[in-house]
Amino acid sequence: MMPAMVFVGIAFLLPVVILLTEGLRTADGWSLARYLTFFSDGLSQEVMLRTLRLGFGVTLASAIIGYGIALTIANASALTRSRMTALFILPLMISPVARTYAWIVLLGRTGLINKALIGIGLTEEPLRLLFSETAVFIGLLQLFLPLMVLSLTSALENMPSDIIPAARILGANWITIFFKLILPLTREGLIIGGTLVFTGAVTAYITPAVLGGSKVLMLETLLYQRISIANDVATASVIAAILIAMSIVTHSLIRRLTSGKRSS
Amino acid sequence: MSNKRTLSLSASLLIGLTSSGAMAQQATLVVSNFAIAQDLMRKDLYAPFEAKCNCKIVVDAGNAADRLAKLEARKGNPEADIAVLADFTALEAARKDLIEPIDTSKLSNFNKLYDFAKDPIGKNYGVGYTFYATSIIYRKDKIEINSWADLWSPKLKNRLALPNITTTQAPLLLFMVERALNGTSPDFAASIDKIGSIKGDVVTFYERAAQLTQLFQQDEIYATVTGRYNWPLITKLNMPIAWATPKEGLTGGLNVLTVVKGSKNKELAYALINEWLSTEAQTRIANDLVDSPANRDVKLAPEIADQLSYGEDVAKSLKVIPPEQVLANRDAWIAGWNTKIAR
Fold first, then answer.
1. Mean pLDDT across B83-90
2. Which one of A105, A110, A214 has the shortest CB-CB distance to B205?
3. CATH fold of the domain at B132-252+322-340
4. A109 contact residues in B (CB cutoff 8 A)
5. Which residues neighbour A143 within 8 Å (Cβ) at sequence distance 6 or greater?
6. Which residues of chain B does CATH 3.40.190.10 include?
7. pLDDT of B17 over the 50 cut
8. How do residues A188-206 score in pLDDT, each as one tens digit?
9. How many A/B residue pairs have CB atoms within 8 Å?
């Protein structure tokens, strides 16, 4: 037990403490001044809000789509199930950089999506999709959806298979079944999936950098800018601390929200 | 088991000892340089120099901010011997006491340099080895560019990419836009306002010049602002793209070689700098389209010269931001950019 604790302490805890205290250390001792400057700056406020908006948006969308896919997978025959799961794991094995660059081609002015939109007459001029929040949202969703699907699928597989038919026989509609049965019973899967997707989305670098660019800054791209251009390690550590806080708060928020559903 | 392990351990120790023994005889010169075209630099400069000096050149490649931070961290006991920097970064390094004045009498090739390259930041803290022009490049089949003010022509709405403030090109853009607006303020207030007013029509503020080829190829943009060092890459696209000569003139930048203060290989450092400035090395480097020569004896074929920023006339015509102005105003530019453009 002890050696393990010492290892964890030195290898994980200590660096985190150093990272987090860096933002509190100033020339005149300990101070919250850097946090106050960061929170009062208009650009950082906008970037923080955007990061939260995209983080929650992607988590919510992946939960909705994820349940749809996971239910389909869980109800399929064993062979189809393993094939579909493999299909969903496959993109995880492709580099996020390659996947993100593929979106540049798809979302571009002469890309597949704009051609399709013009083809079916929805728009005459190609839409500017690249370097927008929409592009970052799509990129992040595609990147992290498999994580949600995997954790929901394994949660659904652990659910007794006869409770949904039983509820149907007793006259429950699908909405009741989802909120009273499926959601409470797959709660752990949703918490794990939601935390993974949210943390992944707010800390992703390559997707906002490539699909959003400097016009759609997120905390992670702002962090990189502070380090690589201004060599401002202190502000970068403030941003890192905010990202950690966001992930922890979101984790407990999802936990609380889903447990609330069960008690009601 | 333990026998085998001891054996292999002592074997590796032995190898370690002998190789470090060989290393001790051969000096290692560390060059802190930009990451661009280092393979060509090895072929054109480092390898030929190594053959002569019985030394080994190690390149520490990276962007300016990272490398400046490294020099600061190792102040007094530096790892690097030569630092290759933009003129204003070199001035910053000089003010932080990280580099030392160069005794130019020890450089036999010094007098071959164009005058503007001889002492660009004062007190001989750096010698210019290359310069570049910066202008607007544009699709000549779609638009015409005669002035920096054409950047906000309605034809470029949603078809323009500009450098982000995080690049070296952004201050140059603001500098020329300020001139086009007849502004004179060194904090570029008028040009930051102007770019801010069209930011919605700008496709993206690029951070890496490599992005530009893709943006042109995908028809996302018709124009952008970039350095001449990007031109060879752009011409490879085989698209009708032209280099503008706006009526307000072209801007540009100068890069310098500096000696790191406290370098333990000063003699070798001087030798490499001298080699770097030589007509032969500068010609090889220019012919590979890596850097434009600052040595006035370099003669280039017209098709090579056309791809670079070549000749004293070109250099003299450039409107360059004085390095002191960059350092004095950079924080104000970033602050202005962040409130008016980045948001």
1. 94
2. A214
3. D-Maltodextrin-Binding Protein; domain 2 (3.40.190)
4. 218-220
5. A96, A99, A100, A200, A201, A204, A207
6. 2-131+253-315, 132-252+322-340
7. no
8. 999 999 999 999 999 999 9
9. 59
Q: Is-contact B141 B219, C-beta < 8 A?
A: no
- Three-state secondary structure readout of A101-129: HHHHHHHCCCCHHHHHHHHCCCCCCCCCC
Mean pLDDT of chain B: 89
pLDDT tens-digit profile of A46-95? 999 999 999 999 999 999 999 999 999 988 888 998 898 888 888 888 88
Chain B, 214 to 233: residues with Cβ < 8 Å from chain A are 214, 218-220
pLDDT tens digits along A148-192: 999 999 999 888 888 888 998 998 888 999 888 999 999 999 999
Q: Tell which of B34, B173, B343 to mutate to test the A interface (max A CBs under 10 Å).
A: B343
Q: Would you tell me which residues 61-90 of chain B have a C-beta closer than 8 angstroms to some C-beta of chain A?
A: 63, 65-66, 68-69
Q: What is the DSSP letter of B83?
A: E
SS (H, E, C) A61-82: HHHHHHHHHHHHHHHCCHHHHH
Residue A14 has pLDDT above 70, yes or no: yes
Q: Which amino acid is at A129?
A: L
* Count of other CB atoms within 10 angstroms of residue B78: 20
Token pair belonging to B310: 């070549």
CATH dotted code for B2-131+253-315: 3.40.190.10
